[in-house]
Design a protein that fits this description.
The chain has 9 helices and 15 strands. The protein is α+β, with helices and mostly antiparallel strands. It has 2 domains: about 150 residues, Glutaredoxin; about 160 residues, no CATH class. The strands form 4 sheets. A 6-stranded mixed beta sheet has the order 1-8-7-4-5-6, sandwiched between helices. A 4-stranded antiparallel beta sheet has the order 11-10-12-14, with no helix packed on it. A 3-stranded mixed beta sheet has the order 9-15-13. α7 runs antiparallel to α9. It starts with 14 loop residues before the first strand and ends in a 5-residue tail after the last strand.
């Protein structure tokens, strides 16, 4: 017994049982000798069941068979919460004939002929109780609650499955991990623009590549787009506006801090005052900042902005939203 997956489609189901009559129960024995009971084996377990009505010598049935199999494969070959089965509407099609049909077309979902109960089972749906029968091949999509949607062609099957609420990996209804990216300027507590976002493996910022996060709806899409990464991590970089917020006032604040007159009282200011990134604030930082202000040199190591945290690993939390938060600190801006 297998379940299955769904993909996005835009086709329309032509009709749903007008009387809202529930699917009748049935049991078939497939070409492999396995028994399948509609309710106890599938619907009662939360499965959606797709019934294909066909017969072995039907030309369009043969023509469409590979496409039906491909749809079954696309949904995961019955490994999740949808099952396909095909039932012959001809009394002369026995299980041996259906088995040959399946072998010829590589069909992997259950099928039954007359001696397997296929004919009797299909007649429960083609008798008119669920609307006109449009001939073979036709499809009946049965939701877990027993309601029946008539899908007279393969194109309408997809939407009918989606309408039942069936779910599987990669399907439309599969929960995904939404995300919000928030980059704030530490000095103003406002959003920081013109930040370059890159993606790479953790601890390897130098080989990270630019990424446009606005083109992704969820973290699953990001991870799928970069299959060669083993530890998907975002890095942040901003090298423009080197003198934004920087003035001789900042040099005065650094001097007062070093002399112990007025200590820098916020973590981001301590980071901003460490001009040469040696994890301490000293006269060397004052000299370096004075040269930058006078236009005599650039910030050491191209150190224009720093981010806290400098990188954010991506993780999955399907059905929830993850906030990706970092703070931009303008080096040299202490006020």
């Amino acid at each position: 017994m297998k379940h299955f997956i769904k993909t996005v489609c835009l086709f329309t189901v032509l009709s749903v049982s007008a009387s809202a009559q529930l699917a009748p129960d049935f049991t078939i024995t497939d070409t492999d000798g396995e028994s399948h009971t509609l309710y106890s084996d599938y619907l009662d377990q939360g499965f959606t069941v797709v019934i294909k009505i066909f017969f072995v010598a039907c030309p369009p049935c043969n023509s469409i068979a590979p496409s039906v199999q491909q749809k079954y494969v696309d949904w995961g070959e019955g490994e999740y919460d949808v099952q396909f089965m095909e039932l012959s509407n001809k009394t002369w099609d026995n299980n041996s004939n259906v088995a040959t049909f399946k072998a010829n077309h590589g069909i992997t979902f259950p099928g039954a002929g007359n001696d397997g109960g296929g004919y009797d089972a299909q007649s429960l749906f083609t008798s008119g109780d669920f609307g006109p029968f449009f001939g073979t091949p036709s499809f009946y999509v049965i939701a877990p609650d027993g309601t029946v949607a008539v899908a007279p062609n393969l194109f309408s099957v997809e939407e009918a499955i989606v309408a039942t609420g069936a779910m599987g990996p990669g399907g439309m209804n599969q929960p995904t991990t939404a995300f919000n990216l928030n980059i704030v300027n530490a000095a103003t507590n406002l959003g920081l623009s013109n930040v370059n976002v890159k993606i790479g493996n953790a601890g390897n910022a130098n080989s990270a590549t630019p990424i446009n996060l606005s083109s992704f709806l969820n973290i699953e899409q990001i991870i799928e787009a970069y299959p060669n990464l083993t530890s998907h991590t975002l890095f942040f970089e901003k090298n423009n506006e080197p003198l934004s917020g920087v003035s001789t006032i900042d040099i005065t604040l650094m001097v007062r801090h070093i002399l112990g007159i007025t200590l820098l009282d916020e973590d981001y200011k301590l980071i901003a005052a460490d001009i040469n990134e040696d994890d301490k604030i000293s006269g060397i930082d004052i000299v370096a900042l004075r040269k930058v202000i006078l236009g005599l040199s650039n910030f050491p190591n191209g150190n224009v902005w720093k981010f806290n945290p400098p990188s954010i690993p991506l993780s999955l939390d399907p059905g929830n939203t993850i906030n990706l938060n970092t703070v931009g600190i303008k080096i040299g801006d202490l006020h």
